[in-house]
Amino acid sequence: MTIAPVAPSKVLLKVPVDSKARVKQFMQGLQDNICQGLEELDGKATFKQDQWERPEGGGGRSRVITDGDYFDKGGVNFSEVFGSQLPPAILRHHPEVAGETFYATGTSMVLHPKNPYAPTVHLNYRYFEAGPIWWFGGGLDLTPYYGFGEDAKHLHTTLKAACDRHNPHYYPVFKQWCDDYFYLKHRGETRGVGGIFFDYQNGEDGLYKNSNDSTTAQVMSDEVGDVPRTWEEIFAFVNSCGNSFLPAYTPIANRRRNMEYGDREKQWQLYRRGRYVEFNLVYDRGTIFGLQTNGRTESILMSLPPLVRWDYDYHPEPNTPEAELNETFLKPQDWINWKA
Questions:
Q1: Which residues pair with 82 in a beta bridge?
Q2: How far is CA 147 from CA 219, 281, 340, in A?
Q3: pLDDT in tens, 211-242
Q4: Euclidean distance between the first and the last CA atom of the chain, given in angstroms as a whole number
Q5: How far apart are CA 299 and CA 31, in angstroms?
Q6: Fewer CB atoms inside 10 A, N or C side of the chain?
Q7: Strands, E, within 29-132: which ranges?
Q8: Which residues of the chain have pLDDT under 70?
Q9: Which active-site residues does the annotation give?
């Protein structure tokens, strides 16, 4: 007699009764730890905190650092929002939760260094519940203005180690998802050298779901098949990812912060920052969600750099470091095995 395989129990996917409190505590702790590490990195400026409340429910802590020794501008935000008016971006994927109350919390960060040789970096980890559905999402990506393979390799090696502690399929799928998500379709280029990105992680089905971001990540996920995980397992993974930020970024920052530069390099940095603005205002899911849930505008847009420029139909001179960024570092690469 053949016995049919038993499907993973839905009991494994249940959410702990204290899920919101535990994720909130983690997200606030992540904000605290990152801010402490970044103040030590800068050595001059400190974060200014602005606490805010959302009339419909929730609030947050916005922390901004400006005019430091290393940072031109940086922001590290914690927020939690809850209520009964679900944003359209959620209802498109989950019409079955119409009328349900929702809860969302997360920590997001964007850092813009002064030195053009030091890269901008973005982090966001978030959690969402509405009625019977829940998921974790987020990631980290690096946006250099001048390309250094050793920097990209260090970042990706650190992120891969965090992923591999939980599942060997995480890094390859989430790296591909990141390459395709942080892509400016109207420019035909990636935002930077990538990192990892994931969304809708709820322990059911495959690793890639509910998204049109990456057909390649979809194929990779389909080859892996279903990856049943518990809430606790995914939460532990997000913890590892969040705590890997300082080891991933700080060595890169210290390597580049004292490199000499002139007006040419600064103007190139300002020009490339324009791409960052374009992505955040046109494509970024976190920005769209924040605006659709009536979040605090100042906090949502804290990721925008203090100075930026656009030049009409500009192309860097051939055989220059600026051209190398376009030709090599704004195309997906196997950074783990990068050799100069």
A1: 103
A2: 29, 24, 11
A3: 889 999 999 999 999 999 999 999 999 999 99
A4: 59
A5: 14
A6: N
A7: 48-53, 58-66, 71-83, 102-113, 120-130
A8: 1-13, 340
A9: 122
pTM here is: 0.91
- CA atoms within a 13 Å half-sphere pointing along the CA-CB vector of 314: 15
Q: In DSSP terms, which residues pair with 128 in a beta bridge?
A: 104, 135
d(CA 27, CA 108): 9
Residue 93, token pair as written in the block: 């994927």
162 burial via Cβ count (<10 Å: 0-12, 13-18, 19+) = buried
CA distance 121 to 195: 10
Token pair listed for 237? 């993974």
Q: What is the pLDDT of residue 8?
A: 37
What DSSP assignment string belongs to 138-205? Answer: EEEEEE-SS--HHHHHHHHHHHHHHHHTT-TTHHHHHHHHHHHHSEETTTTEESSSEEEEEEEESSSS
Three-state DSSP at 126 gives: strand
DSSP string, 203-257: SSS-SS-S--S-HHHHHHHHHH------HHHHHHHHHHHHHTHHHHHHHHHHHHT
